[in-house]
Amino acid sequence: MEILVPALLTIITAATPLLFAALGELITEKSGVLNLGVEGMMVMGAIIGFVAVHYSGSAFIAVIASMLAGGVMAAIFALLVLRFHASQVPTGLALTIFGIGLSALIGQSMIGIAYEGIPHVSIPFLSSIPVLGALLFSHDLLVYFSLVMVFAVYYFLNKTRGGLILRAIGDSHDAAHAMGYSVIRVRLLATLFGGAMAGLGGAYLSLAYSPLWVEQMTAGRGWIALALVVFATWRTGRVLLGAYLFGGITILQLHAQALGIGVPAQVMSMLPYLATVLVLVLISRDLGKIKLNAPASLGKAFHASS
Amino acid sequence: MLIKKTLTMLAAMALAVNGGAAAELKVGFVYVGPIGDHGWSYQHDQGRLAVEKELGVETSYVESVAEGADAERVIRQLASSGHDLIFTTSFGYMNPTNKVAKRFKKVKFEHATGYKRAKNVSTYSSRFYEGRAIIGAIAGRMTKSNVVGYIASFPIPEVIRGIDAFTLALRKENPDAIVKVVWVNSWFDPGKESDAAKALIDQGADIITQHTDSPAPLQVAEKRGVYAFGQASDMKAFAPKAQLTSIIDDWSPYYIERVKAVMDGSWESKDTWGGLDTGMVKMAPYGDAVPEDVRKLADSIEKSIVDGSFHPFQGPIKNQKGELVVKEGEILSDEVLVGLDWYVEGVEGSIPK
After folding, report:
1. Which CATH number fits domain A4-115+124-293: 1.10.150, 1.25.40, 3.40.1350, 1.10.3470?
2. Chain-wide mean pLDDT for chain A?
3. Among A184-198, B14-28, B70-84, B135-149, which is the least confidently predicted range?
4. What tens digit of pLDDT does each residue of B314-334 get?
5. Which one of B126, B141, B168 terminates a domain?
6. If DSSP states are collapsed to H, E and C, what string results for A228-261?
7. Any CB–CB contact under 8 A between A1 and chain B?
8. Is the peptide bond before B316 cis (omega within 30 degrees of 0)?
9. How far apart are alpha carbons A136 and A219 in whole angstroms?
10. Closest chain A residue to B350 measured between Cα atoms?
11. Which pLDDT value is given to residue A263?
12. What is the radius of gyration, based on Cα positions, of chain A?
């Protein structure tokens, strides 16, 4: 128990940035847009968030700034693919390269600067409950916010008219267009939301996880977030499950090593990826189930014909 | 991940192409991490800047080059774009460097931390383990839980040498102390490095040391109220209370010397392994938490390593099974140290194979 609680706490920290980015990408993909630039949007969120907190001293402003940064990156993407019909896959990849380069440029003067990290909030009374108190009620605000967002995304997608329209556009943009919905506008909003969430995920890294700026500090987490959406077969609850599973395996392998359990570290580092491949194989055996949730128009360009 | 690697490579190639027009002497550098890592690659780039400032030659660099096939392409690109001397600054560049060197006989190569040489390939490294012996002794005096956490990157001799030197010095001061090692399989992933630090602290470590490149573990140590040692550069800004000292790499003197050698035609292939005595390894100022007697001890170890009266791998040394491997009075030779692949007594766990 002594080790279990801190281990679980670390898992929550490890899962939160993935959760933010994957929730954003889920909405983007549900609208039929495949944005592979998550890594680039995350790393931009990380640097802008760090710059903002350095100059303003306010974690709140930093979080807003990072969401704006991710949003601006997503807007560039949206302009290219929605307005100019650029192919989504290469545009997304380019966005990642662009984000990594631009963040390095902006971050030059931020190297070597320390920040103490955003404050943790202990909920009175509840946080003093043994075990559960530490686990559930003494995180930084962003952790709670990520869980609120899981619920919000689920509710929006499944229980609201807006969610229905979004899913309809993701499944058949032509049919949705014929019914009079603005495909481009909805996709733009979904893409912007994805960008803001990715930026927030990046900011979680540079403000809370390891509060500092170093180049490419996202270290591939954007790609994991992308994999998570597929892993989750585009379902909100499974995104949450997947993020915590990914975080869990990463952390547990570190603990196993420190305990001297003789599992090769390389195998353990591989596990999250193996798990994704395994799930992909399993779900592709049941095509009906994928079709139920996967947006049918994912990645296809929409040309409004009069 | 393949996509990401390819992208990094593409970006790297783009950078390499922008190396610039022909000049008198062109020196190229290949880095494994971003120059903004504030660790390993950052220190190499400081060396590059020192060369530019001191000798006024043209330099170019390619950062974040993955070890392996990508590296070969980048090195070849540098060699074919008129660079006269190329420094490849990571262990994993060993085979690519030698492969490219065979094709470009006129270009001179310098490979860091490797052991394969050719007529136009030199190797160089610094004896970081000398620094590890100093921080090991400090840790031995300062640990209260007798558990020290070691965050390691990849199981190569360079890293294992550090773990062993650290452990030997630690247990010389404190025979009850043990070292727990966590391998993160990365030189540079601040998130993962901080996770590893947290895992080690959760399992009782009250001092953290690392052979990875970001200051993230020091931040965790600072937050959790334990001590830590910096890596490659002075990381005090990230952990004003926690950093006890830091082992600093200083490549500038070596880089300037080698570029000069090319300029006056005296360059030839050789192996350089410099330590505290040559200034390639330096110690950062002690943190406030280090008491006076420990400072004196650390200073005396540093002095005895420099004047040769003490060697970090001086017997008696026992392996993990408790068997005596190096007898009293004997010293592990450089040939053995270069390929070191076993733990000394006091390290927990086994080396990933």
Report:
1. 1.10.3470
2. 88
3. B14-28
4. 989 999 999 999 998 899 998
5. B126
6. HHHHCCCCHHHHHHHHHHHHHHHHHHHHHHHCCC
7. no
8. yes
9. 28
10. A262
11. 67
12. 20
Q: Assign B124 to helix, strand or coil.
A: strand
Q: Is the Cα dihedral A283, A285, A287, A289 positive or negative?
A: negative
What are phi and psi for residue B109, nearest 5 degrees? Answer: -120, 145
Inter-chain contact B182–A269, Cβ cutoff 8 Å? no
Residue B257 lies in a domain: no
Q: Which residue of B has its CA nearest to A89?
A: B3
Q: What local confidence, expressed as pLDDT, does residue A268 receive?
A: 67
Q: Which amino acid is at A194?
A: G
Chain A contact set for B219 (CB, 8 A): 114, 117, 210-212
Q: B1 CA to chain A: closest CA distance, Å?
A: 8
Which residues 183-222 on chain A approach chain B with CB closer than 8 angstroms? 205, 209-217, 219-221
Contacts of A269 in chain B (CB under 8 A): 184-185
Closest B-chain CA to A12: B195
Question: Residue B157 is part of which domain span?
Answer: 128-241+281-348
Interface of A with B in 231-250 (CB under 8 A): 250
Res. B104: pLDDT tops 80: yes
Q: What is residue B122's three-state secondary structure?
A: strand
Please answer yes or no on whether A214 and B64 come within 8 Å at the CB atom.
no
**C-alpha–C-alpha distance, residues B310 and A196, integer Å:** 57
pLDDT in tens, A126-144: 777 776 777 777 788 899 9
CA distances to A18, A43, A206, A228, B66 from B1, rounded to whole Å, are 16, 16, 22, 14, 12
Dihedral of the alpha carbons of B21, B25, B30, B33, in degrees to the nearest 10: -80
| Residue A263 contacts residue B185 (beta carbons within 8 Å) | no
A250–B195: do the CB atoms touch at under 8 Å?
Answer: yes
